[in-house]
Design brief:
alpha+beta; 5-stranded antiparallel sheet; Uridine Diphospho-n-acetylenolpyruvylglucosamine Reductase, domain 3; Uridine Diphospho-n-acetylenolpyruvylglucosamine Reductase, domain 1; 28% helix; 4-stranded mixed sheet; globular; Uridine Diphospho-n-acetylenolpyruvylglucosamine Reductase, domain 2; 9 helices; 3 domains
Length: 316
């Protein structure tokens, strides 16, 4: 992953995203510890400018027209584990690294994180999860900077729901995540690693090699829709969960291309950058997919990927 240090202007964000697309940050800084992250957040909040946090860039798409205000590249990475299962972790640490360190300490609960290519902060913003688990389950406290003040808050402050939190919304609270405290139960090491290896095996079979942001759309929770789809596996029909990839493929869009962007041929819920896709190519393909699925099934897909920056030209 590309690196940069100090305040800079007009920095391309392409190298800092897994989709390898998008425009420039108006202002940019890389921070490597919580004090630097706090200072950058306080400065941005006190000056009233926009502030965008970037971790490993695995769940964001910057606009071709750029990202106003300050973009903070979060490279904080401390992880502290106590014998009683209490974990303190910086928001910039790798989510998979957090799993590995807690597993080495004999703690279970984060097995689903193996293979997720992002930071803990990004996982929190989107309440990342898989295989009926999510990151919000084990949190006890979250430290944030809000209104220029550094403070600890209860996890309920984040208003977690399926792949969502208060920090994903258009009217999102202006806050920066610093670190979290969580409590994980003790587990049997062999079972922890066996479960993680199985999740990793399943991911490898689904994920294409081209640049992507992983699953682009959220799955649909609708018992009525699930029951109306005879081809849906019985466990999903019973649970009322319809994978977005199922709807996209059933709409005939698997492998569909727009400019340099393509719907995955291996997994239909991936949008791939086939070489030189613009952010607009990816965005426009996503909108076409949403319109097609809405027309065929009557449901509107919602993106997991966050569009950051100035998208007014396309949304108009």
């Amino acid at each position: 992953m590309a690196e940069a240090t100090g305040f800079q202007s007009s920095i391309s964000l392409k190298p800092f995203t897994t989709l390898k697309a998008g425009g420039e940050a108006e202002q940019f800084i890389c921070v490597r510890n919580l004090r630097q992250l706090e200072e950058a957040a306080v400065w941005s909040q006190m000056t009233g400018g926009a502030c965008t946090l970037i971790g490993w860039g695995s769940n964001i798409l910057p606009s071709d027209d750029g990202v106003p205000g300050l973009s903070i590249l979060n490279r904080t990475r401390s992880i502290q584990i106590q014998p009683n299962g209490l974990v303190l972790a910086d928001s910039g640490c790798g989510f998979q690294e957090l799993f590995l360190k807690t597993a080495q300490a004999g703690l279970r609960g984060l097995e689903f994180a193996v293979g997720i290519p992002g930071t803990l902060g990004g996982a929190l913003v989107s309440n990342a999860g898989a295989y009926r688990s999510s990151v919000s389950e084990f949190l006890t406290r979250i430290e944030i900077v809000s209104g220029g003040i550094r403070k600890w808050v209860d996890p309920s402050w984040m208003e977690f729901s399926y792949r969502d939190s208060v920090l994903r919304r258009d009217d999102k609270t202006k806050a920066v995540l610093l670190q979290i405290e969580m409590h994980l139960p003790v587990g049997e090491p062999k079972k922890i690693y066996d479960e993680a290896r199985e999740y990793q095996r399943q991911r490898i079979g689904k994920q294409p090699p081209s640049p992507s942001a992983g699953s682009f759309f959220k799955n649909v929770n609708s018992l009525d829709l699930a029951e109306s789809l005879p081809g849906l596996p019985i466990p999903l029909r019973t649970a009322g969960v319809v994978p977005a990839g199922y709807l996209i493929e059933a709409s005939g869009l698997k492998g569909h291309r727009h400019g340099g962007a393509e719907m995955g041929k291996r997994h239909a819920n991936f949008i791939l950058n086939t070489g030189n896709a613009s952010a607009a190519d990816i965005y426009e393909l996503a909108q076409h997919v949403k319109e097609s699925v809405l027309s065929k099934f009557g449901v509107e897909l919602e993106e997991e990927v966050l569009y950051i920056g100035n998208w007014s030209r396309w949304r108009a």
